[in-house]
Amino acid sequence: MTINEIDLALADRASGGPSTESDVRIEVATQWQLMWWKFRRHKLAMFGGALVLFFYLLAAFAEFFAPVNFTTYNEQYVYAPPQMIHFFREGKLAPYVYGYKFERDPVSYKKTWAIDKSVIIPLRFFNHGDPYKFWGLFRGDLHLIGPVNASDPFYLLGADKSGRDVFSRIIYSARVSLTVGLVGVAISFTIGILVGGISGLVGGVVDNLIQRLIEILISIPTLPVWLALAAMVPLSWSALRVYFMITVILSLVGWMGLARVVRSKFLALREEDFIMAAQLDGVPRGRMITKHMIPSFLSHIIASITLSIPGMILGETALSFLGLGLRPPVVSWGVMLQDTQKVAVIAIYPWLLFPAVAVIIVVLALNFLGDGLRDAADPYQ
Length: 381
What we know:
This protein has 381 residues and is of the alpha+beta class. The protein has helices at 3-15, 21-28, 31-40, 43-60, 62-65, 166-202, 204-219, 222-231, 239-252, 256-269, 273-280, 285-293, 298-321, 333-336, 343-348, 354-376; strands at residues 86-89, 92-104, 111-134, 138-147. It has a four-stranded antiparallel sheet. It is elongated.
């Protein structure tokens, strides 16, 4: 069923017009079908969902999409400017970039880069380059695009202070920054659903204690808590332990809002007939929460998860940017942005801000997707 057919059918039903085949399909449609049809009408949400899917695919297959490994460097091309890909040459598909040349400033003797159009560096799709071990399981060296001659410079988004490819590092950073959001939200939502479910289902003294605790925790500013907890992470810890701890820190301050929403839902649901029937049948509370109550508002939970992931990504980026989160050699968008803490660096080498552009695009896309899911969660409005 197309979107126009749905709109016409809804208009006919509202005006009392004749029943059509589309009208009948709406009447017998499931809850998930109605949600999908309403979600498709939200153009920004569809666009945001496509962008989110693209970034997660990019992160999952970072070794293939990145031209080189994120640790590969060439000291000869420190702070090299971005190169533009030209796809056609002499009327044929033959991608290439121009080479570099540099001059010395006669006053400061500083090296300044420029694009040398007399030097053509041919590129090749599905190029064999830096070897890698995909997800630590399979060895390979195939990349989506790269220079035919491995020694030729290829910096699509420029190079950093060590001569490393910014574009490749952004792709590898997506794997860390995006998974921090997913894992952090998974932990915080598990805590929020359990605590909110117990508060709403049990009630009484337990409910009062939990709600007073949540009110105290919500009153504490989030950023100082993040900074204080992150500062306690020992410098001697491994990258994996720091990653896990930063994820836990982001999760510990993100569950209170969901707990209150879940509590309100449970207070309303526990008076429903199907919940009372489950109680009379002696269903344990744990099973009642997971099998009966949570599925009844699962769509709202999905929308809330989508809207919470951007906060986790921004939290990790902020902590890493301040030097209190993930640290090199781990690469994330926040770690990459540490090089932009000086205004002079940004003014001279603006391409170092490209990780911030990636953060903005992903956060906006997730917000668009979350808005669409939130609207689709109640397809009857």
